[in-house]
Each structure stands twice: as C-alpha cells, then as structure tokens.
Design brief:
Shape: globular
Order of helices and strands: EEEHEEE
Number of domains: 1
CATH topology: OB fold (Dihydrolipoamide Acetyltransferase, E2P)
CATH architecture: Beta Barrel
Number of strands: 6
Radius of gyration: 14 Å
Structural class: mainly beta
Strand content: 35-45%
Strand order of the largest sheet: 1-2-3-5-4
C-alpha cells in the first residue's frame, strides 16, 4: 500500500516544525508535521492526541516552490479551515510506538504534494499555492 497516492479531508489541529539535516547542506531545513482530524477543534492544539492523523510537508514543497510556509500552515490551523491534503502514503514504522498516544496510525501522508482549502460560499476546493 505504500507509495500510493492518497487524499484526506479534515482540519489541521496541530503544526509541528521539525528540524532535519539534508545531505550536502550545512543549514538546517524544516519539515512541518500537520496533525489532521476529521472534525474541527476549537483552536490549534499543543498536546498529543491519539485521534490525529499525520501529514508531512517536506522542503521541496515549501517556499519558493509554494507558499506553504510555517505562518500559512498555522493560519489554516487557527482558522480551522477544512482542508484536503494530497500526497503519498507512507508507513512510518518508527512511529508505531506513538500510535494510540500522539497519532491514530503509523500511516501518514509523506510528502504532502497538494493542499486545498474548502470555500463554503462557492462550495468548491481552492488550491493553496
């Protein structure tokens, strides 16, 4: 099932910037872990929750390639905007120990290749660029 394209609809309830070191680069880059839930939360959350599904925005899908910087991802969380995240399915075997504590499954969308935001007025999905 790994490496299949997938799209998941929900609400971003947590954004976690995680530093990574890419081979051949001195500077630290970031991945953004997005915790997604089926229903909206009252606000962005800071604690772990076993209901969260995980999606990862990797450096190739961040500025300047897209407008998906930390602030724009936090805005989606703060607004509790309904989103559709698309990307590739990945089984993260290292996260199996966190299933039931900080995530619902070891499966994640990694990397996220497309983010769409629901416009209730127009009843349509709009691509986040």
């Amino acid at each position: 099932m790994e490496h299949n394209a997938v799209a998941l609809t929900g609400y971003i309830v947590r954004v976690i910037p995680v530093p990574i070191h890419l081979a051949g680069r001195r500077a630290t880059d970031w991945e953004f872990y997005l915790h997604l839930r089926v229903g909206p939360a009252r606000r962005c959350e800071y604690q772990d929750d076993a209901r969260n599904l995980v999606a990862v925005v990797t450096p190739p899908f961040q500025p300047p390639h897209t407008g998906w910087d930390l602030e724009s991802l936090y805005d989606l969380c703060r607004e509790q905007a309904r989103v559709r995240l698309s990307g590739w399915l990945l089984y993260d075997y290292l996260s199996r120990t966190r299933v039931g504590r900080s995530r619902a499954s070891a499966w994640s969308i990694h990397p996220v290749t497309q983010i769409e935001v629901w416009d209730a007025r127009d009843r349509s999905w709009n691509l986040l660029r």
